[in-house]
Amino acid sequence: MLEIFAQLPWLLPVCLLSLGLVVGSFFNVVIYRLPLMMEARWRRDCCELLELPGEKQAPLLTLASPNSHCPHCGTAIKPWHNVPVISYLLLRGKCAACATPISLRYPAVELATGLLTLLLAWHFSPTWALAGAILFTWALLVLTMIDVDHKLLPDDITLPLLWLGLLFNLGASFVSLADAVIGAMAGYLILWSVYWLFKLLTGKEGMGYGDFKLLAAIGAWLGWQALPLVILLSSLVGAICGIALIVMRGRGREVPIPFGPYLAIAGWIALLWGDAISSRYLAATGLN
Prior knowledge:
By secondary structure, the protein is mostly helical. It has helices at residues 2-7, 11-49, 86-90, 105-123, 128-150, 155-168, 177-202, 209-222, 227-249, 260-285.
C-alpha cells in the first residue's frame, strides 16, 4: 500500500479527504446522540440509586439505531440523501419530504472533518504518526462540538483518547513513552490544581473535570513539553472568543463558556506546529 501511495502521490490525499467526509457524517450522529444516551443512562442510574420507579421506557437510542430521520416530519433519511456535503447541496439544504431547512452545521462538520484530515496528509508522511494524528484530530473535533452544545466532555471519548495517546507513543510516534506518561499526569494535575485553587478563593467551580481529562489526553499524545504552549494558546483563544461574545452578542460575564474547545484547538495547533512555534518564541526571546 505504501508503494502505491509513493507511485501515486495524489491518491493518499484523495482517500483521506473522502474518508474524512464519510466519517464526518457519522460524527454528526455521535455529536447529537451521545449526550442523549448519557442523559438516559444517568436517569436510569438515579432511579436505581434512589429506588424510584423508572420512567416510561423510551425506544433505546444508540449510535446505530434508530435510523436517521427528519426531526420535523419523522421521515427516514434515504441513503442517497445522506451523501456527505453533496446531498445537502442537491437538496438545497432542505428535507426531501417536508422541505424543512436542514442545519448548515451538518455539512460544515462533514467538510471540516474532511479538510482537517486532508491537511494531515500534507503534514505527515504515511506512517503510524499519520494514523494517530487523524484519530487525535477526529476526537478533538467531536469533543469540541459536544462541549459547545452541552458543556460536556464525555469520558467515553476523553479516556480512550488518553490511552490511545500512550499506545501510539509506545513506539515514540510523537514523543517518548516517558514524556507521554508525564504529560498525561501533568496535564490532569495542572488543571486540577487550578480548579481547586479557584474554588478555595472564590467558592465557585471554574471548570469541569472533563477539562482535566482532555488536557491529560493531550499530554499523553504530545508530551509534557507541549503543555505550556497548549495552556497559553487555549487561554489566549478563550479570552479573545469570550470578549468577542460579550461585545457582539451581549453575553453576560456570568454565563459559563466551555473551555474544552479552546483546549482542543490549542492541542491541534501544537500537534502540527508546536515545535515551530516554540522554536520561534525561544529565538525571539533569545532563550535558545
